[in-house]
Specification:
Length: 330
């Protein structure tokens, strides 16, 4: 179980450039109708000037400002990405540098679209181990750089963006019931291969850019299974105080609809913003949290389940008691 921790700040940062389904109609053989009906996506943000580190730093700076936590008090930064700017240094280290955070632990997590849930659980656990009073958890993705913009089966699904939360030690526990899981992806359902590099010790290799490869229907089947399983397990662990709201990974609205139907849950219980941003991989959950708070959907006292799934094949969930008052309540 977790040591007592709360979320003290949340923020997101998305690129300025909006790409609608109608614009994609001019690039590949697709239609707004096909994309909307099969996925719920209407538009996405695409990084032009923005970088993964730049968006991560912006979201982290805003989350820190909201929390009132000083830079000197951050003991740990855990970042997650599968589409970051550099192999090394870690995105967490780049955020530390960008925000001029003097001294803390900094590391990245790679767990596909489940990255944020993994990062959150890792940060809370490490806060206890390291005796840190506060931590930054940041997700930032530039999926547009890893999408083949001539492949209609994948390019319509993804977008770019970042989200961040500040964790702070609290009197009472406000984060509960971590679930982290993974099963082997035996059929390679979601893969982005690193491009090959030639060395002096072997024959030249083809170092062409590699793009995301995905078996859509297989991912769909996996996603609905693990999302339902994780939500049921979290519900059981909550016992007499069940979660009433859910912020799921936004991969496809049909996945969420399916789970809603099989679990007989109400649409109002789910926060869904995939129509605006498409699938930003590990960043969908913190971007959704920031939107949910900003729009007043997420309210102080709410018990909310976060649930994610992604390449690996990974999955995970956690329950949060939301403690940040809404602006009008402050
Ligand atoms: N526009 C128009 N037609 C298209 C497009 C497109 N963008 N993409 C595929 N099609 C066509 C196919 O070519 C196919 O045509 P055919 O019948 O003539 O062969 C037809 O549409 C049906 O294709 P399917 O792949 O069977 O379509 P499906 O209903 O399975 O929907 C989708 C595809 C949306 C990808 C769905 O499988 C899905 O959402 N899966 C989950 C994948 C996912 O969410 N991945 C996110 C990344 S991983 C993650 O976040 C964990």
């Amino acid at each position: 179980m977790f040591a007592p921790v709360e979320i003290a700040g949340v923020a997101s940062c998305v690129p300025a450039r909006v790409v609608t389904n109608f614009e994609l109609e001019t690039m590949v053989d697709t239609s707004d109708e096909w994309i909307s009906k099969r996925t719920g996506i209407k538009k996405r943000r695409i990084a032009v000037e923005e970088t993964a580190v730049g968006m991560a730093a912006q979201a982290a700076a805003e989350a820190l400002a909201m929390s009132g936590v000083g830079k000197d008090d951050i003991g740990l930064i855990v970042a997650c990405t599968i589409s970051g700017d550099n192999l090394t240094p870690a995105m967490a280290s780049s955020v530390q540098k960008a925000l001029d955070i003097p001294r803390c632990a900094a590391m990245d997590i790679s767990a596909g679209c489940t990255g944020f849930v993994y990062a959150l659980v890792t940060a809370i656990s490490l806060m206890d181990t390291l005796g840190a009073d506060s931590a930054l958890v940041v997700a930032s993705e530039t999926m547009s750089k890893y999408v083949d913009w001539t492949d209609r089966s994948t390019c319509v699904l993804f977008g770019d963006g970042a989200g961040a939360v500040v964790l702070r030690r609290s009197e009472e526990p406000h984060m509960h019931y971590p679930i982290l899981n993974a099963v082997p992806d035996t059929d390679a359902a979601i893969v982005i291969k690193k491009e090959a590099r030639t060395t002096p010790f072997g024959p030249p290799v083809d170092g062409r850019m590699e793009y995301i490869r995905m078996n859509g229907s297989e991912v769909f089947t996996y996603a609905v299974e693990v999302m339902e399983d994780t939500l049921r397990r979290l519900h059981k662990m909550c016992g007499e105080k069940p979660y009433t709201k859910i912020i799921p990974h936004q991969a496809n609205e049909k996945i969420i609809d399916y789970v809603m139907r099989t679990m007989r849950l109400d649409r109002e219980q789910f926060f869904i913003n995939i129509s605006e941003y498409a699938n930003t991989s590990s960043a969908t959950i913190p971007i959704a949290m920031a939107d949910a708070y900003r729009t007043g959907w997420l309210r102080q006292g709410d018990r909310v389940a976060l649930v994610g799934f992604g390449s690996g094949l990974t999955s995970g969930g956690v329950v949060i008691d939301w403690t940040i008052p809404n602006k009008k309540e402050k």
